[in-house]
Amino acid sequence: MTGLWAAPDAPEVLREGPSREALRALLLAMADDELMLGHRHSEWTGFAPDIESDVALSSIAQDEIGHARILYEQVAALDGTVPDTLAFDRTPSEFRNAILTEQENGDWAYTIVRAWLYDHADAVRLAALAASPLGSFAALAKTLQREEKYHLLFGNAWFTRLAGAGGESRARLQVALDTAWADAAALFEPTPGIERLVDDGLLHRGPAGQAALWAATVGPRLGALGLEVQVDQAVLAAAGGRAGWHTPALTQLLDEMTSVWRTDPRARW
Known about the structure:
Order of helices and strands: HHHHHHHHHH
Distance between the termini: 19 Å
Number of strands: 0
Radius of gyration: 18 Å
Number of helices: 10
Largest sheet: none
C-alpha cells in the first residue's frame, strides 16, 4: 500500500503544503495509537482469563500492529521516511499516540474498558476518513474498518459480561471506567492542522464533532448497563499525547518493544 497518497485521485493540494502536513500528522497519530495499543494487548498473551479470550486478544493485537504498519507506510510515502524507523527509532517525545494507549494494562476490567472506549472512538475516526473525497485514503479506512468491527464485537461482549456479572466484577468495571474516561476523551485531541483538512473538505468531521459522536454512542450504552459517567464532560482532560507529552509508561513500553530491533537497527527482519 505504500504510495497511496500519490494515486491519481489524490488532489493537488496533497502534493505539498499545509494539507499534506496535516494529513501526515493525523496518520502518524493513528499509527502510533494502533502500535501502542497492539503492544499492550499482546502482553496478555498467555495470561487472559480463558483460552478463547487469549487467542482473540492476541489476534486483535496482531491486527492493531498490522494496521500501524499500513499507516506508517502512508506516512513514509508522504515524508520519505522509513516505516520501521518511525516505529522503532523515535524518542518518547516524538510519538503522537494518545496517553490512553500507552497506559499499563492493569486488571482485565481496565483492559476491556480501554479497548471498548478506544474501539468506539476508532470507529468514529475511521468513519470520518472513510467519507473523505480522498479516494485512496477512504479506501484504506474502509479496509481497516472491516477488521476493526471484530474488535468491537469482542469488546462489547466482554464489557456486557462484566457489567452484568454484578458484585466485584461490576465494581472493577466502574473503577476502570472512571480511570480511563478522561484519557479516552483525549483520543480526540486535535492533531496539528486537522481543522484545515476539514475546512478544505478533505475530512468529513473534525475532532470536536468526532468526540461528540463518540460520546453520543457510548453514553447511552453505559446508561443502559447502569454504569455512571459524565458523558457531557468529555473534555480533553488528559490531552498532551498528540504534542509528545507522555507518561513514564511509554518509556517502559518502548524499551521493551524496541529491545530486539536495537541489537541491530540495520538488519532486515
